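Posting here for the record, re: glyceraldehyde-3-phosphate.
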Amino acid sequence: MTTQKNGVFVRRPLIAGNWKMNIDHMEAIALVQKLAWTLNDAGHDYDRVQVSVFPPFTDLRGVQTLVTGDKLSIDYGAQDLSDQDSGAYTGDISGAFLKKLGCTQVLIGHSERREVHGETDELLNAKLVAALRHGLTPVLCVGEGLDVREAGNHVAHTLAQLEGALAGRSAEELTELVVAYEPVWAIGTGKVAGPEDAQEMSAAIRAKLAELYSQEFADTVRVLYGGSVKSKNVASILAGADVDGALVGGASLDTDEFSKIISFEKHTDTGVQG
Ligand SMILES: O=C[C@H](O)COP(=O)(O)O
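Prediction output follows.
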């Protein structure tokens, strides 16, 4: 969500937890319940910082029941979706099913989908279209591997992924778009891109969106950083003017740590190490 204040766009920060293939459906309920209580005790204001979790598919029904039953303000989404709506696609999950489970967001093109499942920009473009078709906010993940970074091609590589996934889509269709920049070499490794790196790429992503659409559109899109985000480095990473939140993997499985990350405005840090 983006609002305007005195003619300036104010992008609401989003802290999102991607559980990956962790946490079964029973553990999911306990985790979300504890997260909600912890944030409640800390006086968390969801209008200031949005909180989302991305559990495995099998957890979504339980999370939905808890969130709706207890009227929690935590949003949830899926880690992937099919580009198809229904039919003979064994093992795939339709965006229509996700929408019925109350999902509001969906990750698209996480580097682990690109690398482990060989997902191409063309397929991710089709998945993005499917997400939009079902009213799901796409959280489009882009980012470079270590070899690309070391060759100095990280900006061009990441922007090509962005352009490929958005091909043919209009600004009107993408009003809720969220982009997550995740340098693959920083995922789960404890290595963190420095705040300057996160800001550099986030600004480049925004500039590309301005080039593809308009500056006004680009100013409304939230750009997240992901890669070994922890409570001790989150504040410095999010200090970048174009960094609007974080996509957190491992640290989102620890409720206390994830709560501290969500409360990033309340603490400062100086280090950038994982
Ligand atoms: O989706 C989350 C990212 O892959 C980051 O994971 P991580 O925080 O465990 O490095």
